[in-house]
Specification:
Distance between the termini: 25 Å
Number of helices: 10
Structural class: mainly alpha
Strand content: under 5%
Low-confidence stretches: none
Shape: globular
Length: 224
């Protein structure tokens, strides 16, 4: 599975790197601008700024996930090639955005209860985005499908999906907050390139993992 994800990455390496770095840089820039320009004393303005940065991040995550799904599908699973504009037009944006928000909310609730329930929830919902794209499912149908697929290979999904995402979030959290223009440029370079490449690698693995879990589930159904 990892080899298949790597083949997909190598086949479209330049395009994947460019898209991932651009998406990550834009999201990082939005966050930095909000922190630098928003008056935190004004609660309404502060909340609006944070929501705007979050919206940019979600849109970027959704696009990168959809783009990588098409790249893996083309390289390993016989899908038709697609350009970046075609991916933008064809993505089920609203369903993917709702799914992303749903995963965040459920994971946060799990974390508030205890760390472990949050990790379990994230693991069970790890492939909800690829499921929506690969099988063209509605949000709650994709949620149930993700749980069905991942619970049968829970520890494998935790190792390949949950652990890398956790490590990436820890790395992001220890990057210092920039205070001037040189530091802003430095953080943008670190987050844009570093996080972009990490997120691309995780995304490729998630998509290929989803394809493999679907194939295993269909094989089990055929054997019944």
């Amino acid at each position: 599975m990892l080899a298949a994800a790597a083949r997909s990455g190598r086949r479209h390496l330049r395009l994947i790197v460019v898209v991932a770095v651009v998406v990550s840089t834009v999201a990082a820039l939005a966050e930095i601008l909000v922190d630098a320009l928003i008056d935190r004393a004004d609660v309404a303005v502060s909340a609006a700024g944070d929501l705007s940065a979050t919206a940019v991040s979600i849109l970027g995550t959704v696009f990168l996930s959809g783009f990588l799904c098409r790249m893996v599908g083309e390289a390993e699973h016989g899908q038709e090639p697609a350009t970046v504009p075609e991916v933008i037009r064809q993505l089920p944006w609203w369903r993917l955005i709702r799914a992303d928000i749903l995963v965040v909310v459920i994971t946060i609730i799990g974390v508030l209860l205890l760390i472990i329930p949050g990790g379990v929830a994230f693991t069970l919902l790890a492939v909800i985005g690829p499921v929506i794209e690969i099988e063209d499912r509605k949000v709650f149908a994709a949620l149930r499908r993700s749980v069905r697929l991942t619970r049968q290979r829970f520890w494998t999904v935790a190792l390949l999906a949950t652990l890398p995402v956790f490590v990436a979030s820890v790395i992001e959290s220890i990057i210092p907050h920039p205070d001037d223009v040189p530091e802003i440029l430095e953080v943008l370079a670190i987050r844009g390139i570093g996080e972009g490449l990490i997120e691309a690698a995780i995304g490729l693995i998630l998509v290929e993992l989803c394809y493999r879990l679907i194939a295993l589930d269909r094989s089990r159904e055929a054997e019944k």
